[in-house]
Amino acid sequence: MSCPVCGTAICSESTTIDGITIVCPTCGEYDISYTVLASEQWQRLEPVERCDVLLEAKRSAQPGDCPVIATYSPFLARPAPSKLSFSRNS
Ligand SMILES: [Zn+2]
Fold first, then answer.
1. Entry pTM
2. Is residue 4 a part of any domain in this protein?
3. Ramachandran angles phi, psi of 50, nearest 5°
């Protein structure tokens, strides 16, 4: 499996109650919920925006706690990223 955030091959993964704990050589260790992985919002994000979501999760995690990417993450709660409207390739 590859990292859901950066796409790098991950060191390890283990399942939690509602998601997966990822250990990525680039991103470090974090939890991501199945709900997020399956969500349209997450799948629409650019890799750089996924990194922002992870950074935000790291910022809001308690010291010593594993950052968690969940549906209440600000990036995932907002509507579709407006910059997508600039790329009209069709
Ligand atoms: Zn990663």
1. 0.78
2. no
3. -65, -40
12-30 pLDDT, tens per residue? 999 998 999 999 999 999 9
| 90 CA from centroid of ligand 1 (Å) | 30
Measured CA distances, 87 to 45, 82, 83 (Å): 14, 10, 8
CA dihedral 30, 34, 35, 39 (to 10 degrees): 90
Is residue 41 situated within a structural domain?
Answer: yes
Alpha-carbon distance of 70 to 18, in angstroms, equals 10
Q: Which residues of 57-68 are buried (b: 16+ CB within 10 A; e: fewer)?
A: bbeeeeeeebbb
How far does the centroid of ligand 1 lie from the alpha carbon of residue 14, in Å?
15
